[in-house]
Amino acid sequence: MKIPLFSFLFCSISLAINGGNDNLPIGARSSALANTSLTLVDVWSAHHNQAGLGFISKASAGVSYENRFQLAETGLSSAVIALPLKNNKGTFGLSVRKFGYSQYNESKIGLGFGRSFGDHLSIGMQLNYQSIQIGDIYGNKSAFTVEVGAMYKLSPELTIAAHIYNPSRSKITEFDQDRLPAIMRLGMRYQFSKRVFLAVETEKDTYNKAVLRCGMEYFVGDILFLRAGVASQPLSNSFGFGLKLNKFQVDMAGNFHPVLGISPQLSLTYQFRD
Predict the structure, then answer these.
(1) Which residue, of 4, 110, 168, 190, is most buried by count of CB atoms within 10 Å of its CB?
(2) From start to end of the chain, where are the E strands?
(3) Do the strands 121-134 and 139-153 form a parallel or antiparallel pair, or are they unpaired?
(4) Is 77 exposed, middle or buried (0-12, 13-18, 19+ CB in 10 A)?
């Protein structure tokens, strides 16, 4: 069976949307902050920066779904889990992500580990299995990738971080030009108070111009968090909120693309024990 014309159009649009970025960000908290997730420490660190796992002391899990541009064919679903070892020996993380629909989809499964060295430094790494499926004729192609990250707390207020995804530019097919991009990210987070922080980061991948992102979170009090962010390439903005309900946390976000419109996202996380 031949692939419908729509599938070819979808693939082209997908590449334009993703900008060659095969490490799509996940989680509504990150999305509301314009995906300035590099210095965040939560269960979603299992995907964004495995160094953040080293500062996690409580087992937790999360699921998320993003309706990208309100199209069923561009849905992005994901799940993460963080499992700390005893005596601060580090934290294992598992992340799963799937993007697309039956005629075109991308998936990624990653097993990571992060460990802190004292109160200031944490280092993490992850091994991923990634695959792309295009229709019934072209079938499924896959590759292994690695990623490495570091996070350092310069002071109680200032944290810096770095992360590199797929430094070897793994091939997704037998053709040398069909390689997944290498992606480098640098960022910082400044905690103005217990209620407010500002995060800034830049990202550069193999095929595209550098992206600059900025996000802010404000803890209103009791259970409510408010978030907003802005990013370049293209210029887009985002907003969202979070509700902390005992061991559950619910996060919602909307990310606005100047041409393709809004991408709503909902996440749910759960902390297993105190």
Answers:
(1) 110
(2) 60-67, 75-84, 91-101, 104-117, 121-134, 139-153, 158-165, 183-191, 196-205, 211-221, 224-231, 236-245, 248-257, 261-271
(3) antiparallel
(4) middle
Q: Cβ-count burial of 208 within 10 angstroms (0-12 exposed, 13-18 middle, 19+ buried)?
A: middle
Is 2.40.160.60 the CATH classification of the domain at 5-271? yes
Beta carbons of 140 and 132 less than 8 angstroms apart = yes
Distance from C-alpha of 245 to C-alpha of 218, rounded to nearest angstrom: 17
Report the chain's terminal Cα–Cα distance, integer Å: 54
Virtual CA dihedral for 16, 150, 107, 80, nearest 10 degrees? -120
Q: Determine the Cα–Cα distance for residues 108 and 127; give it in Å rounded to an integer.
A: 10
Angle (nearest 5°) at CA 90 between 158 and 25: 60
Taking only the tens place, the pLDDT of each residue in 84-99 is 998 889 999 999 999 9
Distance CA 239, CA 9 (A): 30
Q: Residue 176 — pLDDT band, cuts 50, 70, 90? A: low
